[in-house]
Design a protein that fits this description.
The structure holds 2 protein chains of 2 kinds. By secondary structure, chain A is of the alpha/beta class. Chain A folds into 2 domains: 202 residues, Periplasmic binding protein-like II (D-Maltodextrin-Binding Protein, domain 2), CATH 3.40.190; 98 residues, 3-Layer(aba) Sandwich (D-Maltodextrin-Binding Protein, domain 2), CATH 3.40.190.10. Chain A has 14 helices and 13 strands. In chain A, β9, α7 and β10 form a beta-alpha-beta unit. The longest helix of chain A has 20 residues. Chain A starts with a helix and ends in a 28-residue tail after the last helix. Chain B is of the alpha+beta class. Chain B has 3 domains: 35 residues; 205 residues, MetI-like fold (Orthogonal Bundle); 66 residues. Chain B is built from 11 helices and 8 strands. The radius of gyration of chain B is 30 Å and the shape is extended. Classes of the chains: A alpha/beta, B alpha+beta. Chains A and B meet through α1, α2, α5, α6 and β9 of A and α1 and α10 of B.
Chain lengths: 360, 396
Amino acid sequence: MSRRVVVPVGFLAVVLIIAACESSPSPSPSAAASGTAAATPAPPPAGGRLALVQERGQLICGVNGGLPGFSFLDAATGDTTGFDADFCRAVAAAVLGDPTLVEFRTLNADARGPALQTGEVDVLIRNTTWTVSRDTDWGLFAPTTFYDGQGMMVRAADGIGSLADLEGATICVQTGTTTELNLADVFRSEGIDFTPLPFGEIEQTYSAYDEGSCDAVTSDRSQLVAQRTILGNPDDHVILDEVMSKEPLGPVVPLGDDEWFNVVKWVVFATFEAEERGITQDNVADMVGSDNPVIARLLGADGDLGLGLEADWAVSVISAVGNYGEIYDRNLGPGTPFDLDRGPNSLWTDGGLLYAPPYR
Amino acid sequence: MTQAGHPEHQHVAPPPWRDVRVLRVAVQMVVLLAVAIGIAYLINNLTTAMGERGLSFGYGFLDRRAGFEIGESPIPYSATDTYGQAFIVGLLNTLFVSAVGIVLATVLGVLVGVARLSPNWLLSKVAAGYVEVIRNTPLLVQLFVIYFAVLLQLPAVRDAIALPGSIFLNQRGLFVPGPQLGTTFGTWLVILGAGLAIAIAARAVAARREAAGRPSHRFGLLGALAFIGFAVGGWILVGEPPLTFDLPVPGRFNFSGGLALSTSFTALLAGLVIYTAAFIAEVVRGGIQAVRRGQLEAARALGLSEGDTLRLVVFPQALRVIVPPLTSQYLNLAKNSSLAIAVGYPDLFKVGTTMANQTGQPVPVIVLVMGTYLAISLATSLLMNLYNRRVQVLER
């Protein structure tokens, strides 16, 4: 055999042998058979993610960065504001005592899954829809903070009243989202012909729609409302009444760490419970010594209730960002350009879907 | 010890640690081993990390239902097809835009490269300006400019520019009549073939007569007339027209029917061609300038025109210098086509990232996408190297 064959082949053989010898027993044989990636719960980082975050002294939070109202990175000031951003601050307040100790990582729709799977972010609060495949592949979903649905935005001048009027239309959509899949499913089941125009970035999707490259753009209704405010002529566009799917949006934590999952989960529930009990950013300090045993327990009278945080973690959360209603009103409420109706995002006592289990 | 005057010498081999031949081989083996250990460490790191996080490595997802539509596809595809089929569609789209891009970029690059060496002052300065501006701006920025600032500013579908022959130009694309094959197409093709055979025979006779020095132009003309006659006659003879044209018809939102050249495809193609042509122009210019002046002067002395000099003397020699860097530019074009996702063209990379996202298995998908681009690049460079072997300088 000539040298030009022996050398590369020999090199490759040596590489594979060394790699095989060094590798610890990994679940590759069974994994190769199942392409359906039911990820087995992996051991958390040594000491758990909670300890890791406290040691680091900063929470790494994955956000959108380009969605006004939910998480929007203001290029001028460098601040990230929004509904999701406030929940990042809430978790930081609970774990580290200071809501400003957050590093916001803007993640594209395509990049958020791998960022979670590799543990690059501690928590992903990026208007992510809770689905069964994401629950098994990406991470554990904390309680839904925003119940949304998929909608369609069209130009008012086109005179489109319902989805059926979009026969033969071109529709802009962002890749890597449940939106893309729902669009195909709904339109096929209703027998409507259409052409999708996919874009990787959220900005290009809406730019192309604004310039007339497509007749409609589809996404979560909250996103459509938010993006409409930054289009050229917001009043030229209308969002159809039809809701194409259920889109429960909420925080996600990496798989395999139950302790960390509990922390994030109960921080979210604390905001629901605070609104239910009438605890606000202004009166939380006074409420600490309350006679009401439920409120006292929430605000730390019985310790941290096994979460591994400071006893008064809920006080830190509420004094940092307020209760759920205050977070909602500040970012999406009547005082903002979005003015979104609470709808299903109200407390269960008001007929909505927000329900916090008891704190005991 | 050698003895003076004795024809035979005693050769004593130096010890291994001073023997250059042994040292050479030993050092190479050590370096290869070090690189092998490095790569093995990386592979081991990947498999351990994936195992820790419970990520699996498998390609079973290729048989799962894709669930997303693809806007432009050369083969029939719907959301109920598998991920594997979606991947094939993306691959075909990438190959198509790369192939057309390579051809057009070469043509434009050669023209600009030659123009830059032209004695015409304006022409050479314009070409130089084009090359400098395009080479020094990022391709992504150029794509955005072409798509958003140029093509999307064309009139909307309703106000489309109508060109004669039922061709429509608007911001969604260029819509032309699409040929449809009728049932009699095969028969007509056969008649056409017969006409072509007669024309070729006539050309051969004409060439032979010309070599013998006898007048031959009538034969050439006869051949051409025969071909046209057969084509037209055949069309009428078969009764039903063999080719019908599907005209684009304006609908409520888009044009239906006909062939469509979408804005996304055009923007991507234009961006890739303009960008790569700037680099190819420089490669061509370098190749032409590498041809010795003596060749040009000799051609001039023989009375060859500028065009003939370029075509018969300069280019064949310049080609030897041009082909290897040209291969690199072709590979760059093929890989740059992955920016399609920025302008809405569904290429291999777009399908790949969607798959990685929806299946929750980014590592196998990324390996697959990388392997596919590697295969495309290797195939292209293989073909170019075969061509290079034919034109390269053969030293005696």
